[in-house]
Write a structure and sequence with these properties.
Elements (H helix, E strand, L loop, with lengths): L4 H4 E5 L5 E6 L3 H16 L6 H8 L3 H7 L3 H26 L4 H17 L7 H8 L6 H23 L5 H22 L8 H12 L13
Helix pairs in contact: 2-3, 5-6, 5-8, 6-8, 6-9, 6-10, 7-8, 8-9, 9-10
Length: 221
Protein backbone atom coordinates (compact mmCIF):
# COMPACT_ATOMS: atom_id res chain seq x y z
CA UNK A 1 0.00 0.00 0.00
CA UNK A 2 1.39 3.39 -0.92
CA UNK A 3 1.03 6.36 1.38
CA UNK A 4 0.05 9.42 -0.62
CA UNK A 5 -1.15 11.70 2.15
CA UNK A 6 1.53 14.29 1.48
CA UNK A 7 0.85 14.14 -2.25
CA UNK A 8 -2.92 14.36 -2.26
CA UNK A 9 -3.52 16.87 0.50
CA UNK A 10 -2.88 20.49 -0.37
CA UNK A 11 -2.83 22.98 2.47
CA UNK A 12 -4.47 26.37 1.99
CA UNK A 13 -2.69 29.15 3.93
CA UNK A 14 -4.63 31.99 5.51
CA UNK A 15 -3.59 35.64 5.37
CA UNK A 16 -0.89 35.05 8.02
CA UNK A 17 0.51 32.04 6.17
CA UNK A 18 -0.96 29.46 8.57
CA UNK A 19 -2.45 26.28 7.16
CA UNK A 20 -6.19 26.36 7.76
CA UNK A 21 -7.58 23.65 5.49
CA UNK A 22 -6.66 20.71 3.35
CA UNK A 23 -8.16 20.24 -0.06
CA UNK A 24 -7.76 17.35 -2.50
CA UNK A 25 -4.90 17.67 -4.95
CA UNK A 26 -5.60 17.19 -8.66
CA UNK A 27 -6.10 13.53 -9.45
CA UNK A 28 -7.36 12.55 -6.00
CA UNK A 29 -10.78 11.47 -7.26
CA UNK A 30 -9.23 9.44 -10.07
CA UNK A 31 -6.84 7.79 -7.60
CA UNK A 32 -9.73 6.77 -5.35
CA UNK A 33 -11.70 5.34 -8.27
CA UNK A 34 -8.67 3.43 -9.54
CA UNK A 35 -8.15 1.74 -6.19
CA UNK A 36 -11.89 1.13 -5.83
CA UNK A 37 -11.89 -0.62 -9.21
CA UNK A 38 -9.09 -2.92 -8.07
CA UNK A 39 -10.73 -3.70 -4.73
CA UNK A 40 -14.22 -4.21 -6.15
CA UNK A 41 -12.81 -6.54 -8.78
CA UNK A 42 -10.92 -8.67 -6.26
CA UNK A 43 -13.39 -8.72 -3.37
CA UNK A 44 -16.77 -7.66 -4.71
CA UNK A 45 -18.49 -4.35 -4.14
CA UNK A 46 -20.32 -5.10 -0.91
CA UNK A 47 -17.26 -6.56 0.81
CA UNK A 48 -15.18 -3.40 0.42
CA UNK A 49 -15.71 -0.73 3.07
CA UNK A 50 -14.80 2.92 2.99
CA UNK A 51 -12.14 2.43 5.67
CA UNK A 52 -10.43 -0.20 3.53
CA UNK A 53 -10.43 2.26 0.66
CA UNK A 54 -8.90 4.93 2.89
CA UNK A 55 -6.19 2.50 4.00
CA UNK A 56 -5.38 1.30 0.49
CA UNK A 57 -5.21 4.74 -1.08
CA UNK A 58 -3.33 6.36 1.77
CA UNK A 59 -5.64 9.32 1.40
CA UNK A 60 -7.06 10.87 4.54
CA UNK A 61 -10.63 9.93 5.41
CA UNK A 62 -11.81 13.54 5.33
CA UNK A 63 -10.48 13.93 1.78
CA UNK A 64 -12.11 10.70 0.63
CA UNK A 65 -15.45 11.83 2.04
CA UNK A 66 -14.99 15.22 0.46
CA UNK A 67 -14.92 13.49 -2.92
CA UNK A 68 -17.62 10.91 -2.15
CA UNK A 69 -20.35 11.36 0.43
CA UNK A 70 -20.46 7.63 1.15
CA UNK A 71 -20.26 4.11 -0.26
CA UNK A 72 -23.32 4.48 -2.50
CA UNK A 73 -21.96 7.68 -4.00
CA UNK A 74 -18.65 5.95 -4.69
CA UNK A 75 -20.33 2.93 -6.30
CA UNK A 76 -22.38 5.14 -8.62
CA UNK A 77 -19.30 7.16 -9.64
CA UNK A 78 -17.41 3.92 -10.29
CA UNK A 79 -20.22 2.55 -12.46
CA UNK A 80 -20.37 5.83 -14.36
CA UNK A 81 -16.66 5.49 -15.06
CA UNK A 82 -17.08 1.90 -16.25
CA UNK A 83 -20.00 3.00 -18.40
CA UNK A 84 -17.83 5.66 -20.05
CA UNK A 85 -15.21 3.01 -20.83
CA UNK A 86 -17.85 0.80 -22.46
CA UNK A 87 -19.20 3.57 -24.65
CA UNK A 88 -15.74 4.76 -25.69
CA UNK A 89 -14.88 1.23 -26.78
CA UNK A 90 -18.24 0.80 -28.46
CA UNK A 91 -17.80 4.06 -30.36
CA UNK A 92 -14.45 2.84 -31.67
CA UNK A 93 -16.09 -0.36 -32.91
CA UNK A 94 -18.88 1.52 -34.68
CA UNK A 95 -16.37 3.89 -36.29
CA UNK A 96 -14.32 0.92 -37.50
CA UNK A 97 -17.20 -0.30 -39.70
CA UNK A 98 -18.86 2.84 -41.08
CA UNK A 99 -22.21 2.40 -42.81
CA UNK A 100 -22.28 -1.30 -41.90
CA UNK A 101 -24.63 -1.76 -38.93
CA UNK A 102 -24.62 -5.56 -39.25
CA UNK A 103 -20.84 -5.65 -38.88
CA UNK A 104 -21.04 -3.09 -36.08
CA UNK A 105 -23.31 -5.40 -34.09
CA UNK A 106 -20.89 -8.27 -34.50
CA UNK A 107 -18.03 -5.96 -33.60
CA UNK A 108 -19.67 -5.17 -30.27
CA UNK A 109 -19.88 -8.88 -29.44
CA UNK A 110 -16.23 -9.28 -30.48
CA UNK A 111 -15.37 -6.40 -28.17
CA UNK A 112 -17.03 -8.20 -25.26
CA UNK A 113 -15.09 -11.38 -26.02
CA UNK A 114 -11.86 -9.37 -25.98
CA UNK A 115 -12.83 -7.90 -22.61
CA UNK A 116 -13.35 -11.28 -20.95
CA UNK A 117 -10.15 -12.67 -22.49
CA UNK A 118 -8.07 -9.85 -21.02
CA UNK A 119 -5.87 -10.56 -18.01
CA UNK A 120 -7.49 -9.65 -14.73
CA UNK A 121 -11.10 -10.11 -15.83
CA UNK A 122 -13.21 -10.79 -12.73
CA UNK A 123 -16.69 -10.60 -14.22
CA UNK A 124 -19.07 -7.97 -15.52
CA UNK A 125 -19.15 -5.09 -13.03
CA UNK A 126 -22.84 -4.50 -13.72
CA UNK A 127 -23.80 -8.14 -13.20
CA UNK A 128 -21.81 -8.19 -9.98
CA UNK A 129 -23.31 -4.97 -8.67
CA UNK A 130 -26.90 -5.83 -9.52
CA UNK A 131 -26.57 -9.24 -7.86
CA UNK A 132 -24.95 -7.82 -4.73
CA UNK A 133 -27.50 -5.02 -4.41
CA UNK A 134 -30.81 -6.61 -5.34
CA UNK A 135 -32.99 -3.84 -3.98
CA UNK A 136 -34.42 -2.17 -7.12
CA UNK A 137 -34.14 1.18 -5.34
CA UNK A 138 -30.43 0.87 -4.62
CA UNK A 139 -28.51 3.35 -6.80
CA UNK A 140 -25.99 0.69 -7.82
CA UNK A 141 -28.75 -1.63 -8.97
CA UNK A 142 -30.45 1.20 -10.84
CA UNK A 143 -27.23 2.11 -12.64
CA UNK A 144 -26.77 -1.51 -13.69
CA UNK A 145 -30.30 -1.68 -15.09
CA UNK A 146 -29.82 1.63 -16.90
CA UNK A 147 -26.62 0.40 -18.55
CA UNK A 148 -28.25 -2.81 -19.77
CA UNK A 149 -31.17 -0.88 -21.21
CA UNK A 150 -28.83 1.49 -23.02
CA UNK A 151 -26.96 -1.39 -24.65
CA UNK A 152 -30.27 -2.95 -25.62
CA UNK A 153 -31.36 0.30 -27.26
CA UNK A 154 -28.04 0.58 -29.07
CA UNK A 155 -28.44 -2.91 -30.51
CA UNK A 156 -32.04 -2.17 -31.49
CA UNK A 157 -30.91 0.94 -33.32
CA UNK A 158 -28.20 -0.92 -35.21
CA UNK A 159 -30.57 -3.75 -36.08
CA UNK A 160 -33.10 -1.26 -37.41
CA UNK A 161 -30.41 0.46 -39.46
CA UNK A 162 -29.47 -2.94 -40.92
CA UNK A 163 -33.04 -3.38 -42.17
CA UNK A 164 -33.91 -6.24 -39.82
CA UNK A 165 -37.61 -7.13 -39.86
CA UNK A 166 -37.72 -7.65 -36.09
CA UNK A 167 -34.90 -5.51 -34.64
CA UNK A 168 -36.13 -5.92 -31.07
CA UNK A 169 -35.81 -9.69 -31.25
CA UNK A 170 -32.31 -9.61 -32.74
CA UNK A 171 -31.21 -7.06 -30.13
CA UNK A 172 -32.48 -9.27 -27.32
CA UNK A 173 -30.82 -12.36 -28.79
CA UNK A 174 -27.50 -10.54 -29.05
CA UNK A 175 -27.85 -9.15 -25.53
CA UNK A 176 -28.38 -12.69 -24.24
CA UNK A 177 -25.16 -13.74 -25.96
CA UNK A 178 -23.29 -10.77 -24.50
CA UNK A 179 -24.58 -11.53 -21.00
CA UNK A 180 -23.72 -15.20 -21.50
CA UNK A 181 -20.16 -14.37 -22.53
CA UNK A 182 -19.66 -12.25 -19.42
CA UNK A 183 -21.19 -14.83 -17.08
CA UNK A 184 -19.51 -17.90 -18.56
CA UNK A 185 -16.06 -16.32 -18.75
CA UNK A 186 -16.19 -15.29 -15.09
CA UNK A 187 -16.57 -18.96 -14.12
CA UNK A 188 -14.98 -21.06 -16.87
CA UNK A 189 -12.68 -18.51 -18.45
CA UNK A 190 -12.50 -17.32 -22.06
CA UNK A 191 -11.72 -20.82 -23.33
CA UNK A 192 -15.04 -22.13 -22.01
CA UNK A 193 -18.44 -21.74 -23.69
CA UNK A 194 -17.92 -17.98 -24.04
CA UNK A 195 -15.47 -18.67 -26.88
CA UNK A 196 -18.34 -19.51 -29.25
CA UNK A 197 -20.32 -16.36 -28.49
CA UNK A 198 -18.99 -14.46 -31.49
CA UNK A 199 -19.80 -17.34 -33.83
CA UNK A 200 -23.34 -17.60 -32.47
CA UNK A 201 -23.81 -13.85 -32.86
CA UNK A 202 -22.61 -14.03 -36.46
CA UNK A 203 -25.08 -16.80 -37.22
CA UNK A 204 -27.95 -14.84 -35.70
CA UNK A 205 -27.07 -11.68 -37.59
CA UNK A 206 -26.84 -13.65 -40.82
CA UNK A 207 -30.27 -15.13 -40.18
CA UNK A 208 -31.76 -11.69 -39.69
CA UNK A 209 -29.66 -9.91 -42.32
CA UNK A 210 -29.37 -12.21 -45.31
CA UNK A 211 -25.81 -12.26 -46.66
CA UNK A 212 -24.87 -9.33 -44.43
CA UNK A 213 -21.78 -11.02 -43.03
CA UNK A 214 -19.29 -13.61 -44.21
CA UNK A 215 -19.10 -16.82 -42.20
CA UNK A 216 -16.58 -16.74 -39.36
CA UNK A 217 -14.94 -19.47 -37.35
CA UNK A 218 -15.03 -20.04 -33.62
CA UNK A 219 -12.60 -17.95 -31.60
CA UNK A 220 -10.34 -20.04 -29.40
CA UNK A 221 -10.29 -23.78 -28.96
Amino acid sequence: MSNLRDEVAVASPDADGAEVARRPAPGTRERILKVATELFGKHGVRAVGMQQLVDETGIGKSLVYREFTGKDDLVVAWLHQMRAVWWDMSAEVVARYPDDPARQMLGIVEMVHEQVAAEGYFGCVYHTTSSEFRDPQHPGHQESVRHAREIREQLRGLASAAGVVDPHRLADELLLIIDGIYASASVLGPSGPSRIGVELASQLIQQHCSDALPAITTIGH
